[in-house]
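notes to self, project folder thing:

trying the whole complex as one job this time. last attempt i did each chain seperately and stitching them together was a nightmare. four parts in total, labels are on each line so i dont mix them up again. if this works i'll redo the older ones the same way
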Amino acid sequence: MSEDKRQTSRRKTSAGSAELDLPEATVARLPEYLRALHALAEIGRDTVSSEDLAAAAGINAAKLRKDLSQLGSYGTRGVGYDVELLTSQISTVLGLTENRAVALVGIGNLGHALAGYAGFSPRGFRIAALFDIDEGRLGETIGGLLVRHVSEIADVVVTEGISIAMLTTPPHAAQPVADMLVEAGVTSILNFAPCVLSVPEGVDVRKVDLAIELQILSFHEHRKATARTATPESASPKTASVNPPPPSPATAPGIAFSDQAENA
Amino acid sequence: MSEDKRQTSRRKTSAGSAELDLPEATVARLPEYLRALHALAEIGRDTVSSEDLAAAAGINAAKLRKDLSQLGSYGTRGVGYDVELLTSQISTVLGLTENRAVALVGIGNLGHALAGYAGFSPRGFRIAALFDIDEGRLGETIGGLLVRHVSEIADVVVTEGISIAMLTTPPHAAQPVADMLVEAGVTSILNFAPCVLSVPEGVDVRKVDLAIELQILSFHEHRKATARTATPESASPKTASVNPPPPSPATAPGIAFSDQAENA
DNA sequence: AGGCGCTTGTGAACGCGTGCACAAATCGGG
DNA sequence: CCCGATTTGTGCACGCGTTCACAAGCGCCT
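result (full assembly):
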């Protein structure tokens, strides 16, 4: 994400906790593998081939094997991967062994929804504090959690041991709030505000901008539309795209896709 | 996103609407440029250098120039880019000249928030229909919009001319709903459910998984933490990362970063 | 009119990520 | 004990994306 390229160039510290620097692309896929593994465990699978796991994660099998090998993973040739072991391995690498406390700043429309979202806790996170600047929201409790004033960030972040924060304020408030969070000791921010954040080195920022996602889709829509009018004879060949045949599992072998929805 | 690599390999159709196939990475950045341009226009700038615009978008200047050049853009050497012209260009390429109608399926915690989110309409989108399967929500209106039953998807998508849908259902419901949407003619889906969707060729799916974003941040937290304990002498050199110096703009030249928060 | 400074646009090198294809390894059966 | 079926782990090549550095172009000032 950030421009930080330099690594400590450490590989595997002698013994204790294996320390390794994975390619960013691999890191971004590990959570998806983890989710797929949970789904597989829930339907009773105890081992998986790379082919099956890749299908469940929506990813190329070779890519998955390379990812897991870089992780120093313990698969068994001729058999596959042990679901439980691999789950544990990835969880450890991602630092999910402890439930991480997360702060949420900006209890507006979106913040309210995230505060009540049940999908975080089974995946390693616990929303430990809510903050807003609006006096009108301060008394409110959401899911048994009190909405505090942003001026309490410094105290609460320390006492709750928070290192990750989600930012759902209006864009004009995002930078000052980010400064407060960093000052308090937060070193990772998930930014939902449509603006660029400036943070000191050592702090990671990931951005989620829903309008941007839609605009990217819009581009492809635009391209598809103009391609359709430009070459109208291509409306029949094979990719009609509108009213396709029964949307059956036309994707991959292995796991039946109706099963994969079985996760929380 | 999907595995669809083959392009129509079309470049610039003779006259009318310029047709060009941009690299995916460029497409993903164009919306960010657009947002930065809006912010610049709001503070009165009518021309921008690639350096300034890149800073406002949080991106490398050379990358920005290459992106815009691929777009066939009209900058002026020695001066920069005309803000209004460039805004219009990018908007056209992204297909944002018309306000696109978007469907939202799954009016739960998150869906409710998105339905009320004010940030879509100024960026080219209009939420035109809400759907849910839960009887309890059917009567409800959000922002003057009625929550309909999913069985009405087929009708409403056609009459409203919807081609993009956002999916905020629980994961087990995502695939069947996606099938219904595709069947109705939707060709782009923004999926918030933590599961893999199987769609026919010609349909684009983008996934937004908030827990995954947190898990990626968690990895970096884990790495930073172990690096700190492994080499405790590095706690002083320069990147203390906790309680850093006054979080001043320690990032880049060009635009003062205190200005960039001024966008809507 | 001419020169100078500034900024764009792009050619070229580099590095990362992806995908193929195969050797190595493991299990089960005969 | 050996053999074949199966699946992992990886060396290698290719392509995309990023970055640098510079030539080309534009405006302004003298």
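what i see at first glance: The first strand of chain B starts at residue 47 and ends at 48.
need to look closer tmrw
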